[in-house]
């Protein structure tokens, strides 16, 4: 382990410069304008994998963006770690809110990251975290201390639903044979409170359209006489939560797995300050489902949120009009054992049923995915826990996250493999927001911690 760690400390600056180069490419998967850049990013990662000594590096084409694959099989009798990550990023908008351009990475110190953080879209989600694995494996290879086999599978469509990765996984079960999946695409509680993510929420995402009259109308001539689709949509959306902030869709909670009192008590031990939470977000108070703490609301409970709503006149000044149509995009975060298809169906039936006769409603489903949980008594979790203990000097806390990585549930179903979520980001790193950043402490700590995982996982597998 010593020479691996030496190699890391001697190459820190180069690792950072390589990450900066990677962050300069705007690999936005949601916007076809950046198609060339997304492809270029895949090739850049493939080149780096080949350069560090990974074999059989391929840029696997799909119906969408390619999947970068590579492997280093040192001995078939040893365990195999399959590393998953994504090289695509979210759009940078609203760009005017960035203090420096999203694809011109700069290092700046912040209150939480006094040693500096790298500011760029994808710095934390997920280029910075994915790249830690490439550099950790490089360090183990260069110091002849890679203790087991490793496979890489880095995709370019995570932020748009991983549809083609799902197909790739189903068609390549043999190629992807491994003992554990290792992912850094989540977060931890704080730099001095290491934690391992033991759960992810699922997702059901829908778009709704409410149509009133067949054309936009004068709001004086027709106002008060016909349904205004925007008023109606607002009312319908408001009715989806009751006064306790429970979701009102019939059957929505039927399959939700409730935690035991012991599990909830265990969860409540994780440090959390409501005051700091509110202060960081500039809010006077939190809001959520009655009977649950903020930590619980954000991880073990399902949610329903409008992500966008539009219609009518939104330009300069005033235009007196009743719009013909109103729209909204709605996400529902799901927990075990809610089925995203079933929830989408329940939503659709309910939303259509509450529409007044004066409007027409259509519900269009988008991508979704199932929730996932990792047990904490597996050798994978134990190896991760020992790895964090080695580099942080503290045992990590198991924490369920509110975010989603839908492919994780598929890994279990199709490959029969559990995923270890060793995330090193912080909630305050502004992923998907303007000024996304990733602490240099976190980047280097990740690179240092990963080799310990390989070592302990190999030893515990014996
Ligand atoms: N890396 C995130 C998910 C995440 C972040 C999980 C932090 C836990 C902690 C991932 O890139 C992401 O953004 N996922 C999407 C879902 C996807 C289907 C678009 C999400 O959670 O909104
Ligand atoms: Mn991600
Ligand atoms: Mn993301």
Task: Kindly describe this structure.
- This protein has 2 domains: 2-200 and 371-460, Zn peptidases (Aminopeptidase), CATH 3.40.630.10; 202-256 and 302-369, 2-Layer Sandwich (Alpha-Beta Plaits).
- Helix content is 33%, strand content 21%.
- It contains 13 helices and 18 strands.
- It has a 6-stranded mixed beta sheet with strand order 1-2-6-3-7-17, with helices on both faces. A 4-stranded antiparallel beta sheet has the order 11-13-9-14, with helices on one face. A 3-stranded antiparallel beta sheet has the order 4-5-18.
- Strand 1 and strand 2 (67-72) form a beta hairpin.
- Helix 11 crosses helix 13.
- The chain starts with a helix and ends with a helix.
- Ligand BES is lined by residues 125-126, 158-159, 161, 185-187, 200, 203, 367, 369, 401, 403-406.
Structure keywords:
binds ligand BES, 462 residues, 33% helix, binds manganese (II) ion, alpha+beta, Aminopeptidase
Number of structurally distinct domains: 2
Overall helicity: 25-40%
Strand order of the largest sheet: 1-2-6-3-7-17
Small-molecule binders: ligand BES, manganese (II) ion
Please compute the radius of gyration using only Cα atoms: 24 Å
**Count of DSSP-assigned helices:** 13
